């Protein structure tokens, strides 16, 4: 085993050269080569010897190696079959890992984790491919995954969307979903120069700690998120138009306007002005029409 961590640029380059690995743009592959950033990810995720960790897109094992040093067990899910033999070698010193060659969007995470520890509450830690960040995060939050936290490196712009409140240009369905399920905390901004190869944009590390209970009460959370998605489907449209045009909501524009009036709200409101609490209130009122 090399005395250098995989994150060392010389060791990363050596592994890539040894396997003649070719980066695939379709998988959003950029390997982290900054020890300082790795430490920030690990510290904010608070990985300890009792933790079962799920990592999405381990690449050549840069972060996985460090997770294995701290965690009880690491489930690493990698879609690129070309990386599996590399991971088998780079992680060979560790027995506390499971490498799964699969698309995370098609994996039953709960089932896979139960094979490792039936009682585990997992922590997800990952350097996520930018192009599928939102589906992965929403799949974890909306699925029946026994989740403690999600600590991820993602495109800075997406991290901004997760944290902002009403009235800002970045506020939308993702902001509301993340804040309904979690407490988001920005850990650090990461320069594109911390990766091999360098991506076109800067990144951010964000930690999403799961709420014990959601911060608002709503009768039907799945219905509320249908209302939210409809409200942001066409940002420049009013709430009444967005909800009235939604194919999966059997509610007309006129009915929506009547509900807005009954709540004492302006009929021309847009979704970007409403708080999570107000969306819960609107959802409960609209639900009575069905």
Can you tell me the CATH architecture of the largest domain?
A: 3-Layer(aba) Sandwich
Number of domains: 2
| Total DSSP E strands | 9
Segments where pLDDT lies below 50 for 5+ residues? none
Biggest β-sheet description: 7 strands, mixed
**What Rg do the Cα atoms give?**
21 Å
- Note the total helix count: 12
The CATH homologous superfamily of the largest domain is called Vaccinia Virus protein VP39
Sheet-strand content, in percent, reads 15-25%
Mean pLDDT: 91
Helix content: 25-40%
How would you spell out the order of helices and strands?
HEHEHEHEHEHEHHEEEHHHH
CATH class of the largest domain, please?
Alpha Beta
Summarize the structure.
The chain is of the alpha/beta class and about 290 residues long.
Fold and architecture overview:
- It is a single chain.
- It contains 12 helices and 9 strands.
- It has 2 domains: about 10-210, 3-Layer(aba) Sandwich (Rossmann fold); about 220-285, Helicase, Ruva Protein, domain 3 (Orthogonal Bundle).
- The radius of gyration is 21 Å and the shape is elongated.
- It has helices spanning about 10-20, 35-45, 60-70, 85-90, 110-115, 135-140, 155-165, 175-180, 220-230, 240-245, 255-260, 275-285, and strands at about 30, 50-55, 75-80, 95-100, 120-125, 145-155, 180-190, 195, 205-210.
- The chain has a 7-stranded mixed β-sheet with strand order 4-3-2-5-6-9-7, sandwiched between helices.
- Helix content is about 40%, strand content about 20%.
- The relative contact order is 0.11.
- By secondary structure, the protein is α/β, with parallel strands linked by helices.
- Helix 9 (about 220-230) crosses helix 12.
């Amino acid at each position: 085993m090399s005395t250098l961590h995989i994150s060392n640029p010389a060791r990363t380059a050596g592994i890539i050269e040894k396997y003649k690995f070719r980066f695939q743009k379709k998988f959003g592959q950029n390997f982290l080569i900054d020890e300082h950033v790795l430490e920030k990810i690990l510290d904010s995720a608070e990985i300890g010897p009792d933790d079962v960790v799920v990592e999405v897109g381990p690449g050549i094992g840069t972060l996985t190696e460090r997770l294995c040093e701290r965690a009880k067990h690491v489930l690493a899910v990698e879609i690129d079959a070309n990386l599996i033999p590399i991971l088998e070698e780079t992680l060979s010193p560790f027995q506390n890992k499971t490498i799964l060659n699969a698309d995370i969007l098609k994996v039953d995470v709960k089932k896979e984790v139960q094979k490792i520890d039936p009682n585990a509450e997992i922590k997800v830690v990952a350097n996520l491919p930018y192009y599928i960040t939102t589906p992965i995060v929403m799949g974890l939050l909306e699925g029946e995954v026994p989740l403690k936290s999600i600590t991820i490196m993602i495109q800075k712009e997406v991290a901004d969307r997760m944290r902002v409140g009403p009235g800002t240009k970045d506020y939308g369905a993702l902001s509301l979903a993340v804040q309904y399920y979690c407490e988001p905390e920005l850990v650090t901004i990461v320069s594109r120069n911390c990766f091999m190869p360098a991506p076109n944009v800067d990144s951010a590390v964000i930690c999403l700690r799961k709420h014990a209970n959601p911060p608002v009460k709503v009768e039907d959370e799945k219905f509320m998120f249908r209302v939210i998605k409809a409200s942001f489907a066409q940002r420049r449209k009013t709430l009444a138009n967005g909800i009235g045009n939604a194919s999966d909501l059997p509610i007309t524009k006129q009915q929506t306007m009547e509900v807005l009036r009954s709540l004492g709200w302006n009929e021309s409101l847009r979704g970007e002005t409403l708080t999570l609490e107000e969306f819960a209130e609107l959802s409960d009122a609209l639900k009575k029409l069905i």
